[in-house]
Design a protein that fits this description.
single chain, 264 residues, 2 domains, 3-stranded antiparallel sheet, two-stranded antiparallel sheet, 8% strand
C-alpha cells in the first residue's frame, strides 16, 4: 500500500486506528508490532521478532510515499496481519515495503527468526517453521548458538550442544566435510585480545567463509578441542587450538610444554 508523501494519509490512518502511537515513532520503529495482550496461537506465539514485528513500514522519502508490507510472504496468515487488514480495508503488500534504494528488512527478519529461536532453546520449533527463514540463516544461527551461551546458564557451554547442532545441520541438508582440520584452519589466525582489566581473550574470527563452513568449523572446533568456553560462556581459541593452527598441515605440532604431539 502506498500513499502521497505530502498527505501521508496512510500514516495518519495507522495512528488513528491505534497501530502506532504517532508518526514519529512509526518512522523510528519502521514496523508495526503485535501489541501485548493480543493472543496468538501456535506457531505465531513463538519468541521470534519476525512474528512479533511482522509488518515493515517505510517512511515517506522525497517523492516516495509511505508504504507497509510483510517481512515474509507467509506472514499473510499471521492473525495480527489479518486483524490489521480487516481494520484498514486492503491487503498488505506480500513482498515487503522496500525504501527508495530497494532495501527491505525482510532478509534481516529471516535471520531474526533463526537466531531468536536458537537463543530461546527452541531449535526444534525452528526446524518446524524453517519455511520462514533460509538454510544459510539457520546455519549462521547454529554457529551463533555454539559460540555464545545464555547469561543464566550455569554450564556456560553454548545455547546448543554439538549434538543438537549436528541434528539441525542434517535437517537443513548440510553435508559434513570429510576433513575436519582444514575447515578450522580456514578461519582467521588466532589473535589475542588483552583488555586493560581482566584476563586475555582469544576471539574466533571466521573471515568471509560461507555459513555452512562456519557452522561445521564451530562444531569440529568444540568437539576436537580447538575451542573452549570461558567462564562467561563465550567460545574462544584454546591453547591446544592455537598450537594446532600454528602447526598448519603438519602431522605433528609442539605443545606449550615443548613436547611434540600428533595433530589429529
Amino acid at each position: 500500500m502506498m500513499d502521497s508523501p505530502e498527505t501521508d494519509t496512510l500514516g495518519a490512518m495507522l495512528v488513528e486506528k491505534g497501530f502506532a502511537p504517532n508518526l514519529a515513532l512509526l518512522d523510528i520503529n519502521n514496523s508495526l508490532a503485535v501489541p501485548h495482550g493480543f493472543e496468538l496461537p501456535a506457531p505465531w506465539n513463538l519468541p521470534s521478532r519476525m512474528f512479533r514485528f511482522p509488518i515493515e513500514a517505510c517512511r515517506p522519502d522525497g517523492d516516495q510515499p509511505r508504504r507497509i508490507g510483510l517481512r515474509h510472504p507467509l506472514l499473510a496468515d499471521h492473525p495480527y496481519v489479518r486483524h490489521i487488514e480487516a481494520m484498514i480495508g486492503f491487503e498488505i503488500d506480500r513482498n515487503g515495503a522496500p525504501n527508495r534504494h530497494g532495501y527491505s528488512s525482510g532478509p534481516t527478519a529471516r535471520w531474526w527468526h533463526a537466531v531468536d529461536l536458537i537463543s530461546a532453546g527452541k531449535w526444534r520449533k525452528l526446524l518446524e517453521t524453517q519455511e520462514f527463514t533460509e538454510p544459510a540463516c539457520i546455519m549462521n544461527a547454529v554457529a551463533y548458538g555454539c559460540r555464545y551461551s545464555h547469561h543464566e546458564d550455569k554450564r556456560a557451554a553454548g545455547y546448543i550442544s554439538t549434538a543438537e547442532a549436528r541434528e539441525i545441520m542434517r535437517e537443513v541438508g548440510a553435508t559434513e566435510p570429510d576433513e575436519r582440520g582444514p575447515i578450522i584452519r580456514a578461519f582467521s589466525a588466532p589473535m589475542v585480545c588483552r583488555p586493560d582489566k581482566g584476563s586475555e581473550h582469544w576471539p574466533i574470527n571466521t573471515g568471509r567463509l560461507c555459513a555452512e563452513d562456519v557452522a561445521w568449523g564451530m562444531i569440529f572446533g568444540i568437539e576436537d578441542g580447538w575451542f573452549r568456553y570461558d567462564r562467561s560462556g563465550f567460545l574462544q581459541w584454546s591453547e591446544l587450538g592455537r598450537e594446532r593452527y600454528a602447526a598448519g598441515e603438519s602431522m605433528t605440532y609442539t605443545e606449550a610444554s615443548g613436547q611434540a604431539a600428533f595433530a589429529f
